[in-house]
Give the backbone structure.
Amino acid sequence: MSSQKIPSKHTAAVVKNPGENCKMVIEEIDTPKPGPGQVLVKVTHSGVCHTDAHLMRGDWSAAGADMLCQVGGHEGVGSIVSLGPDVQNCAVGDKVGMAWIRQTCAVCTMCMGNGTETRCPNQSNHGRDADGSFQQYAIVPTNYLIKVPEGIDDVDVGPVLCGGVTVYKALKVSEAKPGQTVAIIGAGGGLGHLGVQYARAMGLRVIGIDGGEDKEKLAKKLGAEAFVDFTKTKDVVGAVKEITGGKMCHAVVVVAASASGYATAPLLCGKNGTMVAVGLPGGHVEIKITPMTLFANGTRIVGSNVGTRGDMEEALDFAARGLVKPTVAVHKLSELEETLDDLIKGKISGRAVIDLWA
Ligand code: 8ID
Ligand code: ZN
């Protein structure tokens, strides 16, 4: 079933040798046909998440998370161009998103739990074990297909599908209440700059922490009341102490992809504060806090991973209502490898987005 001509081949960024010697090649690959329970999506744009860089470079190999497919990307948006044999819950022409979670098993304890489906041990992920959104056409199973609401520009959808929903969920998990203060470590990056906006829309006060003038400008423009530049400030804990009048923060969301981001994080929490681990630097990184500090402060340390389909609907709704708008720089697919290099070097403020047809 299809209303438009689908080419037999399409352009994709194919990853050769994921790991240290990884190389990306722009190639024409076969356009697959959707099977039962699947649709074919013509991808228009895809956000570029730091997770893509981690996977391609093998940063998480020691943790058993290798890239097992040939095309990365999990912030894809496009429209359905063809339906598999038995598909009924969507139609050709629907605007949809493909995110990190491609499929869950729906029957394990995590899938059946309240809000725990993101921890399904049997899940598959776009750009990790199934080809993702850095290609013009992609197969997407329908049970995790995201319907994109009206009101968001195409170019802005992708960054919400991973970056947006992830920080939104992390803020919910932090249990910070309106009027309370959250520090976002990595506030000028992809997840962080969206975190500043979600936090503001949720009534929170934001201290942004990141490096460089561009990231400071962006975080402040989006609503951070204060900013600490970790590349210039030796004593980040002292700086936050000064900003908060000694009270420190109710929540600390770490989206930095570095060990240094975690070094100070638990110490930025005030009494009964919560640190949420989101950023996933490669290598062996530990979160250090003494029992005495835990005892004295009641610090809660939790991890948060992406969001459920319900979280996704809410995260997109904030964007559709204009409360959150990704700051994007649009690139061609041929510029993806360079864009990933820039991301690793910390040079990208906001989110880079690939236009698959430019
Ligand atoms: O579900 C999840 N937990 C999830 C979902 C999506 C992404 C986790 N992630 C992970 C990614 O794999 C990555 O490890 O979150 C991390 C951030 O992803 P991103 O936002 O896509 O990356 P980015 O745009 O590079 O932003 C990171 C920011 O951290 C800053 C950098 O300057 C950059 O702006 N940063 C670093 I690196 N070290 C810092 C430090 N010590 C720091 N900011 C403050 N202090
Ligand atoms: Zn991501």
Summary: The longest helix spans residues 154-174.
